[in-house]
Amino acid sequence: MSFEPHEVNGQPGAIFRDRDSKILHTLVLEVLDGQIQTIRTVINPDKLGHLGPVADAWAIDREVKQARRQMN
């Protein structure tokens, strides 16, 4: 996974991407008087599509779980 700093809805934040550069989720910092007030994330693929291709987070989760099982 990687992330890139990005303005999201006019607020400072980041876009998190999978290894194929598809969007996993976003993170937004709501800042007031120089202090972070709220941290919000969006993981709903229906709300991320306007930013670009969206990753299949469930497939990634299954892949990680399978890899962990194989390590044990």
Domain unit count = 1
Q: Give unreliable regions as ranges.
A: none
Cα(first) to Cα(last) distance is: 23 Å
Helical amount among residues, as a percent range? Answer: 25-40%
Sketch the major β-sheet: 4 strands, antiparallel
Name the beta content range: 35-45%
Helix-strand topology string = EEEEHH
Q: What shape does the CA trace take? A: elongated
Q: Would you tell me the structural class of the helices and strands?
A: alpha+beta
Strand tally: 4
Count of helical segments? 2
Enumerate the strands of the largest sheet in spatial order, edge to edge or round the barrel.
Answer: 1-2-3-4
Mean pLDDT: 92
Radius of gyration: 15 Å
Question: Could you characterize what this model shows?
Answer:
This protein has 72 residues and is of the alpha+beta class. The chain has one domain (2-71). It has two helices and four strands; from the N terminus they run E-E-E-E-H-H. The protein has a four-stranded antiparallel beta sheet with strand order 1-2-3-4. Strand 2 (11-17) and strand 3 form a beta hairpin. The radius of gyration is 15 Å and the shape is elongated.
Based on the model shown, name its key terms:
72 residues, four-stranded antiparallel sheet, alpha+beta, single chain
Please give the structural blueprint.
Layout: E1 2-8, E2 11-17, E3 23-32, E4 35-42, H1 45-48, H2 57-71
Antiparallel strand pairs: 1-2, 2-3, 3-4
Task: Please outline what is shown here.
This protein is an alpha+beta fold. The chain has helices at 45-48, 57-71; strands at residues 2-8, 11-17, 23-32, 35-42.
